[in-house]
Design a protein that fits this description.
2 copies of one chain form a homodimer. Chain A is an alpha/beta fold and about 200 residues long. Chain A contains 9 helices and 11 strands. Chain A has a 6-stranded parallel sheet with strand order 8-5-4-9-10-11, with helices on both faces. The first copy, chain A, has a 3-stranded antiparallel sheet with strand order 1-3-2. In chain A, β2 and β3 form a beta hairpin. Chain A is elongated and about 60 Å long. The relative contact order of chain A is 0.09. The mean pLDDT of chain A is about 95. At the A-B interface, α1, α5, α6, β11 and α9 of A face α1, α5, α6, β11 and α9 of B. Chain A binds a DNA duplex (22 and 22 nucleotides) through α3 and β2.
DNA sequence: GGATGTGAATGTCTTCACAGCT
DNA sequence: AGCTGTGAAGACATTCACATCC
């Protein structure tokens, strides 16, 4: 299969959400044009994105809403449940632990960790926060797919080093760039960076 | 000035953070090579990014750490204080309101809004949550630069429609794509989308 | 000597435009 | 007729490589 642009993957995720909305509205089929309008892109882009993975549409008709949704879920690996841990139960970590969207997208939260004695041992949304010292041992005994890092910036890379050998993906919320071993996928959610990019767009002149 | 790639802006934001770290370590100058290593990019990329805005370095020497930091802050519009409101004080909104990083990057939180009677009137980190019905009137009387949308997905576009005429930028945390009037910059922080992109990277085969 | 700044070359992504199914 | 699927063209971004200057 051809190499898939990162941007295509992000759009597929959007298309899936639109399909779910169309499905809720009772639509049976959808055209590349209709998907494009909701997603702020072009019909050619939609067709190209989808064609990278196969021929899912019918000429003259469009795409079957439920069939395409199934295909996209398959491509994105939704349905295969992913086990995750959250490390750092501060403000962001807390919000993540309580966030229903995790489960809705097939990510089951197994455990959460912190180092603050005020937080360790507390029960948050059905799980008890464990001390980060237990991290490596726990991961060896009971591995997970993804580590979500929501520590302060200073601890993020060290945390990544500790979980790197045991996980296949890292989602980093700390406002620093972190690296991970070859083969571990890393994604960043960086609010400060988005704010600064917004700041650039707001500059006068 | 030449057109600036979006990706360049995001990297400038990273470079600035590295410069602040270098400054903390007492470094006076820094090479494109050193910046590249921390940022997971190449020295040529760093030089190209910076050269789009001017010639800030000295051949044979590198870049002055404090001078380049000043330049980057200027480019990114940091220093010009930006007034923001947060709309939706659920889990994410609450974390944002309490988030010190906002102020640290020059964004002063003016007000927060919600529709839930349980939340309206509550005091969170020195501001009192107002009812979203007051939004338009407040914005007319006391405008802000940026609206941060942290509502449930169903309310996000409507919220954008309501604030669109009064703000210059929107940062959207709701997991839907929203559109805004011409001239209003929109950025998305979409955790579900990042998770799904991670899911794709985790697929087996 | 050492590191920048930058045209040129390369690589990647998007858009075009149309043949080909239904 | 309508809409997909796709090679080719075009736009955009990154990397190379080297002249230039401190």
């Amino acid at each position: 299969m051809a190499k898939i642009p990162e941007s295509t993957i992000r759009r597929l995720s959007l298309y899936l959400r639109f399909l779910e909305a169309f499905d809720g509205e009772g639509a049976r089929t959808v055209s590349s044009q209709a998907l494009a309008e909701r997603g702020g892109t072009t019909s050619a882009q939609v067709r190209k994105d989808l064609s990278l993975f196969g021929s899912f549409g019918k000429r003259g008709l469009g795409y079957s809403v439920p069939d395409l949704a199934v295909k996209l879920r398959e491509i994105l690996g939704i349905g295969v449940p992913r086990r995750v841990v959250v490390i750092g139960v501060g403000k962001i970590g807390m919000a993540l632990v309580q966030y229903a969207g995790l489960a809705a997208r097939g990510f089951t939260l197994e455990r959460a960790y912190d180092v603050d004695p005020q937080v360790v041992g507390r029960r948050v949304a059905s799980i008890v926060v464990r001390h980060a010292d237990e991290l490596e041992r726990d991961l060896r005994r009971d591995p997970v797919d993804v580590a979500i890092i929501a520590t302060p910036p200073g601890a993020a890379q060290e945390t990544a080093n500790r979980v790197g050998p045991s996980v296949r993906g890292i989602l980093n919320f700390a406002p620093v760039t972190i690296s991970a071993p070859e083969g571990v996928a890393v994604r960043h959610v960086n609010v400060e960076l988005e704010l600064e990019a917004l700041g650039y767009a707001l500059r006068t002149g």
